[in-house]
Amino acid sequence: VTTRTPFIAGNWKMNLDHLQSIAFVQKLAWTLKDANHDFGAVEVAVFPPFTDLRSVQTLISADKLELGYGGQDLSAHDSGAYTGEISGAFLSALECGYVLIGHSERRTMHAETDEVVAAKVTAALRHGLVPVICVGETAEDLEQHGPSAVPVAQLRAALENAGANPDIVVAYEPVWAIGSGQAATAEQAQQVAAALRAELAERDAELGARTRILYGGSVKAGNIAGFMAQPDVDGALVGGASLDIPEFSSIVRYQK
Ligand code: PEP
Question: How far does residue 157's CA lie from ligand 1's centre (Å)?
């Protein structure tokens, strides 16, 4: 039987500068330590803005914190004339374990197509980063195509050049649930997570069995347990609530 370690990830979006990030990570670490959080039982990671990553790395390595971290995006290219872009090599050099790819805010506000997302996934893998591949349907998609068609197609496209069994995390984030306060139901999340897992399993049975699938979209302390009780939901990608230490800690400690 494959066991998948539950994973709670905080997407800070464009919040907290490098000084604020130091205070925040220290407080979060103390809060979880005080609560005797077992990081081996529920993995935790944060996704700060690029300019915070060096501070976060220094703090985490100095205090030997078991907190993971990664970038919110990366370039599809490794180096060169790409003003304003960040290479996966730079994220690796800062010992990032993960990188978010294809968040709906990047797909809609930065015109990231499925092709761009696929190129970024291979860039992440090339640099030893685990891509957290974000997929999800808009309210319109849901009405026109039903719950799973768009997320499954986005996942398939994202993995176009990724090989049979890449080391990835998938985040199912219905666009209508992000930042809206209106989360999907646990049953809706399970239905799509199962379809995403079937897509992975079709590619490679082991990939389907071991890949963690997260739910994201208005996750709070009050609804996390319902999502985590679903057989195909292995964690959460948390936006707004990840900036509130007591709330995020309660989400991490959903079993308590
Ligand atoms: C997100 O942006 O990944 C997200 C899930 O946001 P929120 O939790 O605020 O809905």
Answer: 22
Answer yes or no: is pLDDT of 2 > 80. no
What number of CA atoms fall less than 13 Å from residue 42's CA on the CB side? 20
- In the reported structure, the alpha carbon of residue 187 is separated from the centroid of ligand 1 by a whole-number distance in angstroms of 18
pLDDT of residue 256: 83
Q: How confident is the model over 169-180, as pLDDT tens digits?
A: 999 999 999 999
Q: For 207-220, write each residue's pLDDT tens digit.
A: 999 999 999 999 99
Identify residue 25 by its one-letter amino acid code. V
Spatial separation of the C-alpha atoms in residues 122 and 161, rounded to whole Å = 7
**What domains sit in the chain, N to C, each tagged with a CATH number?**
7-252 (3.20.20.70)
Q: 166 CB under 6 A from ligand 1? A: no
pLDDT of 86 reads 98
Judge if the beta carbon of residue 235 lies within 6 A of ligand 1: no
d(CA 217, CA 233): 13
Active site residues: 103, 173
